[in-house]
Design brief:
about 110 residues
Length: about 110
């Protein structure tokens, strides 16, 4: 299984911002440099398991959310996963996705 480190970095950044924590505070709490956190969030450096565990502890999130975009502790984990997938899509691609989804949503079982 391969991971897209830019997506992982975006999830870490979002979780950090949602907690109102700066990169500096996160770095200090993990005893790493601010540059290291910045590189992780930009997907330039893969995060190792020990540091991922520390990040999740500080940000009070799960490794499932950071690695896969799913957080089964919330009711909206699938919604969040879909939103994560749409990040970085061009407007044309989003229109195409909407055209595919719309008939599914309108289908009456």
């Amino acid at each position: 299984m391969s991971f897209d480190y830019s997506i992982i970095g975006n999830r870490i950044k979002k979780a950090r911002e949602d907690k109102g924590i700066t990169q500096e505070i996160l770095a200090e709490s993990m005893d790493v440099s601010n540059a290291y956190i910045s590189k992780i969030e930009r997907g330039r450096t893969p995060v190792n398991l020990d540091n991922l565990d520390k990040i999740c502890a500080v940000l009070e999130t799960t490794t499932d959310y950071i690695l896969r975009g799913t957080n089964t502790t919330t009711d909206d984990y699938m919604r969040n996963e879909i939103i994560d997938m749409l990040e970085g899509c061009s407007p044309e691609k989003i229109k195409l996705i909407a055209r595919v989804i719309k008939p599914i949503l309108e289908y009456k079982e």
